[in-house]
Write the structure tokens for this entry.
Amino acid sequence: YRTTDSWFSMGQLPRALQVLAVGSQGTEFSLFTAESTVTGEALLRPTKYGWVDHSVVAVLVCLLVGVGVYFSKKEKSSGDYFRGGQRIPWWAAGLSLFATGASAISLMAMPGKSFAENWIYFSVAIFVVMIQLPLLMLVYIPVARRLNISTANEYLERRFSLPVRMLGFVCFSLNLMLGRMAAILLLPALAISAIFGMPMEYSILIMGVVTTLFVTMGGLEAVIWTDVLQSVIMLLAVLLCAVYACTALDMSVPVAFDLLSNLDKLQMFDWRINWQAPVVIVIFLNTFVTVLGMIGDQNFIQRVQCTHDEKESRKAVYTQLAVAVPMNFVLFALGTLLFLFYVTRADTLSPALKPDGVFPFFAAQNLPAGMAGFVVVALLAATISTVSSAMNSVANLGVEDVYRRFFPKVSDHQCLVFGRRLTLGLGIFGT
């Protein structure tokens, strides 16, 4: 296994072969002999995941639908549906900002990076605090609150023209529905299928249908309060796995640190000048450009405006960073702990396991019944929180940038009905 630099036997060939050459592509390989070619495929080892874990997933599904039903009774206007009536507490808006940005891809990729490589990408979290905090506090929040814009694109029309507003609407909507929602539904479903045995189509349908139902019924309030629930689930699942991996290590702390130091597994900064590698200057500039783009992110605009006032909006951003940065630290620490865990147990891995899948694979392989299901719930929750925000924000743009803009005489109730129907259509399309 390449990551742990270990060799182990996965089985025997049916008969002895005199192999002339070997070829491989992904998890498939071929052995070429003088008489024939033998092909095979590396498979993941079976895990403990079972019906108890499926039951845990079913409980989450029922909770999310229940939240949508509850908040559907409160949505009396388009302001309620897309801004939560500006009655959302700052801490809930902050947790929603965190959950919206923390997709299942993040939950798998961060531990995967430190498991296979090092901590260089953790520096993103440090640069986000340095750049995002002053920019949001001094510029973005005052602009969004004091101008009272319903969408970021409304500001584009005021500053430039209607065509520029439409360009912003089209670019953001296509990016979220095609570039983000589709990918975020697909990639975790692939991992869940490979590791937990749940067919990929089932995972996509569960996430897509459940999200479409509760967002269509409950609007932004349903999105935010389910984000709060999902944030707690994600935090608990990651901490649970980190503690379990730490207590199960087969080496002392000094030995572990010597091993990690010798392999540069704890490296956080690369000060070289190399524009093709994740060095400090490249990561800093990438983070800077990403943060600049937040002013055009409708998810951000909605969270800033759903609180009671500007002061509450600032507290929401503080909350987001206060949760996101420690969470990133724990995710990278989890990847390092899993490297130490598997370096002495390489025979329990498989060449079919990609680094991004090591976190859910560890849970399915080692945690007690029900706990692995809790990790699947965390992956589903991370996906649903991001997808639900994408659906609601694009529907918000459709109502404000198109429907209300080109049909100014429509009533607010008509905008609410149109927003619900558009949300439903977007959910079906994305799924």
